[in-house]
C-alpha cells in the first residue's frame, strides 16, 4: 500500500496523508469534540483523491484532480481546522507573540500603522491583502498554458505543502491576531475609499473568528509562489513583486497578523522550498523522472 501511495504524484500523496492525519487527530481528541461530522468530510476527501488517481483520465477529471480538488481541500481544511482548534488546543499564544514583537522591534507595528492610517492607504492595503488569493492561480495557469506539466505538479505540491504546514502551525500555536486580541489598543477604524470596508466585511463573514495568525500563511504561500515565478517566469515575477511586498505589509497594517507571524511565514517559506523540493526531486529519481503518474 505504501509503495502504491509513493507512486502517486506528491501533491496527491500529500492530500491523502494530510487528511488521513486529520482523521487521526479527530479520533485522538474525540472526547473533546461536540460532533464527528468533520471525520466524514476528511475521509471522503481521502477516498475521492484515491478514486481520481485510479480512474482513466479525461479533460473534466483532470481539471477536478489537478485544480478542483486541491482548491476544495485547502478551503475545507482551513475552515474546519479553524473550528477544531478551540477544542484540541484552546490556549492562545497572542500574549507571547505581542512580547516577541516588542522585543524585536521595540514597538507594536500595527499600533504605529493605526496612527498613520488614512482611507487611501487602507484601500491600497486591503486590496493588496487580497492579491494572495489569485497568486497560486497565476503560476498554475502559466505552467499549464506553457505545457510544463512536470513543473506544474512540482508547484502544486509545494503550494499545498505550504498551506498544510501553516494549518499544522495554527493547531500547534493558536493565535487570533491583533484585530481580535488587542482591539482596545487601536484608536481608529480602518476605513477605505470604495472597496476596503466591503472586502473586510466579506473576509470576516467568510472566515469568522479563527486562530490562524501564526505562522502567516498569507506571507508563506505568497513568497513560495513568488519564488516559483522567479524560476519559471521573470515577467510574472516582476509583475507580482511589488504587490507581494504590499501584501506582506498589509498583513500587519490591516491587523491580521503580528510581526512575528510574518517572520514565521518567511521561515515556513524556507522550510517548504527546502523540504518540498528535496522530496519532489527524490520522488522523481525513484519514479524514472516522469510525471505521468496517477
The H-and-E topology, N to C, reads as HHHHHHHHHHHHHH
- Outline: globular
End-to-end distance, in Å? 15 Å
Residues in helices, as a percent range: over 70%
Structural class: mainly alpha
* Structural domain count: 1
Computed over alpha carbons, the radius of gyration is 20 Å
* Overall pLDDT metric: 93
Number of DSSP-assigned strands: 0
Fraction in beta strands: under 5%
Unreliable residue runs = none
- How is the biggest beta sheet arranged? none
Helix tally?
A: 14
What does this structure look like?
With 294 residues, the chain is mostly helical. The mean pLDDT is 93. The protein is 75% helix and 0% strand. It has one domain (2-286).
Short account of what is shown:
This protein is 75% helix and 0% strand. The protein is mainly alpha-helical and 294 residues long. This is Phosphatidic acid phosphatase type 2/haloperoxidase domain-containing protein.
Amino acid at each position: 500500500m505504501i509503495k502504491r501511495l509513493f507512486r502517486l504524484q506528491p501533491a496527491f500523496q500529500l492530500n491523502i496523508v494530510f487528511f488521513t492525519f486529520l482523521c487521526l487527530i479527530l479520533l485522538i481528541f474525540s472526547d473533546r469534540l461536540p460532533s464527528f461530522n468533520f471525520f466524514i468530510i476528511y475521509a471522503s476527501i481521502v477516498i475521492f483523491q484515491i478514486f481520481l488517481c485510479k480512474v482513466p483520465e479525461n479533460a473534466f477529471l483532470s481539471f477536478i484532480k489537478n485544480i478542483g480538488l486541491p482548491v476544495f481541500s485547502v478551503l475545507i481544511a482551513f475552515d474546519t481546522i479553524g473550528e477544531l482548534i478551540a477544542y484540541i488546543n484552546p490556549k492562545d499564544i497572542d500574549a507571547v507573540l505581542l512580547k516577541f514583537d516588542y522585543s524585536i522591534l521595540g514597538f507594536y507595528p500595527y499600533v504605529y500603522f493605526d496612527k498613520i492610517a488614512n482611507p487611501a492607504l487602507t484601500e491600497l492595503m486591503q486590496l493588496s491583502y487580497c492579491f494572495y488569493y489569485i497568486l497560486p492561480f497565476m503560476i498554475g495557469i502559466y505552467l499549464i498554458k506553457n505545457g510544463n506539466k512536470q513543473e506544474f505538479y512540482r508547484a502544486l505540491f509545494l503550494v499545498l505543502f505550504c498551506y498544510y504546514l501553516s494549518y499544522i502551525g495554527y493547531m500547534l500555536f493558536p493565535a487570533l491576531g491583533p484585530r481580535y486580541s488587542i482591539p482596545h489598543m487601536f484608536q481608529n477604524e480602518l476605513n477605505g475609499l470604495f472597496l476596503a470596508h466591503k472586502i473586510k466585511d466579506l473576509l470576516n463573514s467568510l472566515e469568522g473568528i479563527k486562530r490562524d495568525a501564526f505562522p502567516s500563511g498569507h506571507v508563506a504561500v505568497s513568497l513560495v509562489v513568488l519564488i516559483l515565478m522567479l524560476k519559471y517566469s521573470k515577467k510574472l515575477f516582476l509583475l507580482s513583486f511589488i504587490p507581494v511586498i504590499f501584501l506582506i505589509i498589509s498583513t500587519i497594517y490591516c491587523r491580521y497578523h503580528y510581526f512575528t507571524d510574518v517572520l514565521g511565514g518567511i521561515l515556513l517559506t524556507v522550510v517548504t522550498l527546502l523540504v518540498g523540493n528535496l522530496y519532489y526531486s527524490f520522488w522523481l529519481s525513484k519514479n524514472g523522472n516522469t510525471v505521468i503518474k496517477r
